[in-house]
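Bug report

Summary: structure tokens for B box-type domain-containing protein differ between web form and batch submission.
Environment: batch mode, default settings.
Steps: 1) Submit the sequence below via batch. 2) Compare with the web form result.

Sequence submitted:
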Amino acid sequence: MSSTRKASTSCFFCEKIPKTIFKCFNCDLSMCRECKTTIHVKIRGSEIHTIRKTKEFMSEKKCEDTERSQSGIVWLLQLLCCRQDLVRNAHFSAELLFEFNNVEKVSRLEEDQRGVYSSQHKSKQSDSMLYNTNCQIKETETVEFQFDSLKRYTTDLPVINRLISSSDNTLWITRATLNILQKIKIEGDYLNIISTFNIKAFDIASAPNGDLLIASDKSYIKLIQSNQHNIEVSRYDISPFLPTAIHVSRHEKIMIGAMSTGPAFPSTGERKLIVMDINGVHEYTVQHDELNTILFTYPISITSNDIGDAFVLNRLNADCEGRVVILDKLGTVKNIYSGHPIFNIDQKFKPKEIAATNDTLIICEAHNHRLHVINSSGNLIQYVNTKDILGISFPQSLYSTKDQLLIGTSRKKGSTDKSKLYIMKCNQMVQKFTH
């Protein structure tokens, strides 16, 4: 490397032009301070790389570990080849991500980032990707989804905030700001509206007996009995709090996001997760982690998996930034997912809805037409551009069944288009890796 070579004035990763540029002599890349500490550190062997500010470029130092340096450069070359899709446009198919995250890179990335959760919680700071320090993975299964048999239906709503499927082959969709709750049924290529209710439904869930549970603007959960058309008061009361989200687990636990009365933002009072049994008896409440740090600002969506893990989508601010808190069946924090440090460089992580399968969690972002698929440990395993790959713009709401994924959409600001409902078959391909 020539000592007279001039440094780049922009960051390789984010392409910004910061005041201070850092140069890695081993990777031969220039970067800003933020990318140096969030992305470059993920490169294998980066702990022994020589990084200097631009004014120190004249003093060159060779890498002491050639083998590690070459591995890091290979990793970066692969990132460079797909950077325009990966970082800038995030057009990233399932096949590309699967190839990119081969066993060596996945295991190394997890090893490099393991322990971030505890250290960041101690300093009460959030990180782009947080990992459980107790997670010593010896063998993992990566679940990759393949989507096919895509069907599209047009609704009469501008946005589908929430949707669920009922046991009688009907669907429920909502538009909270318009106080609309609809029961619909698919008939051929069209949606037939069976019933429309005037109610502010922030979230909805299906009870084991088929009743529809509604998180509305009252401290108690409302319900519509199966095959009935009246809104009633349920036994699930969280006074003096207001419900923000509701979910019924496979183990018949009623999980309710709760907040003190007042505006959603700025956050005031208490924000928590309340868990009840099927009879409405309060079992436990989750509000803080083990370090007494507040977990929730505005919990807007809840789901769970077969083993009892709960996933709480927590909105952080009025700009819709958020994160997913992963809890075990006792309410202890296992992990927190706040987007990926590569995919969420240019755009903040703004999740709208979550849906759980047996082994994975699917998260949708409407503003950039993205699906994040993470495992129960909180690690990203798949990233899908729904607009380019599936033809689905602005995915706003999700609901999963055993072999189907339902997606409700929103629309571009200023548009008069109606929202779409997509139903697709979802096949899981499991790849097993030994670390």
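Above is the batch result. After comparison, the two runs are identical; trailing whitespace caused the diff. Residues 1-8, 55-143, 429-435 have pLDDT under 50 and may be disordered. The chain has seven helices and 27 strands.
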